[in-house]
Amino acid sequence: MAQQLIGFIGAGNMATSLAGGMVAKGIRPARIWMSDPSKDRLDEVAQLQRVHVSTENRDVAGRVDVLVLAVKPQMMEQVCTDLRDLIAERQPLVISIAAGVTVGNLRRWLGSTPIVRCMPNTPSLVQAGATGLYAADDVSDEQKAMAKEILGSVGIAFWFDEEKELDAVTAVSGSGPAYFFLLMESLIEAAKAQGLDAGTARQMVLQTAWGAAQLAITSEVGPDVLRQQVTSPGGTTAAALGVFEEAGFREQVQAAVAAARERSEELAG
């Protein structure tokens, strides 16, 4: 990433996780700037990450070569228009991590500058994220590599050729953690209903979820084969899976992801 300076507009959890991930990967904190209206938040970030901080967005935008927009979608237009003249002058690579804010919107508010739009997910907060990236046509290969390095510092990152594919990314990995949390929540309640105390039920379910994910990640076979390996004919797992299948579990997952994608398209529109 050469010695270019990287700035963050917004010092929320995702921004600070990205900064922390970059520092952990060897990027010097002195190359990172971060702005936020909360001085208390900035003091906390500066102490934790040892990066430069400022309460002024323009102070950060006027210094850096890469600018990560990490503000809420409803704040994005105002933030961008306030920086438009600086963006026109400096032409930084702009990376947006705001859900539902399209490259077209960013172009209209910022003017002409290279733009990468990203869809990270909440496991990025613990360096276990999955992020989808889309680059506008004027983003160079070097800038694409830089964007992937930044987002890849908190997990894995994938490029997509068409921006509309990010709606599917949102439905799968962006919203996906909530699907697994719902299953964990339901399984904990089921364990309690079978007589396990709340603390034990929670620990057993979370460890089982973590273990299953680790097994799937490290295995040379797919989840379908792993499921079959756990399922003995006529056994306990087969009895449980039979209930899921009879209830249309697979169809429900398909419908849920489709609904999430449809909503993502509506918000982007």
- Averaging pLDDT over every residue, what do you get? 94
* Uncertain ranges: none
* Count of discrete structural domains: 2
Shape: elongated
DSSP, total strands: 8
Q: What is the count of helical runs?
A: 12
Strands ordered across the widest β-sheet:
3-2-1-4-5-6-7-8
What class, by secondary structure content? alpha/beta
Order of helices and strands: EHEHEHEHEHEEHEHHHHHH
- What is the share of helical residues? 55-70%
Rg is 21 Å
Measured between the Cα atoms of the first and last residue, the distance is: 34 Å
Main beta sheet strand tally, sense and closure: 8 strands, mixed
CATH superfamily of the largest domain: NAD(P)-binding Rossmann-like Domain
Q: From the coordinates shown, what is the CATH architecture of the largest domain?
A: 3-Layer(aba) Sandwich
Q: Under CATH, the topology of the largest domain is which?
A: Rossmann fold
Q: Beta-strand percentage?
A: 5-15%
> What is the name of the CATH class of the largest domain?
Alpha Beta
Domain Pyrroline-5-carboxylate reductase dimerisation: 163-267
Binding site for NADPH: 57
Function: Catalyzes the reduction of 1-pyrroline-5-carboxylate (PCA) to L-proline.
Subcellular location: Cytoplasm
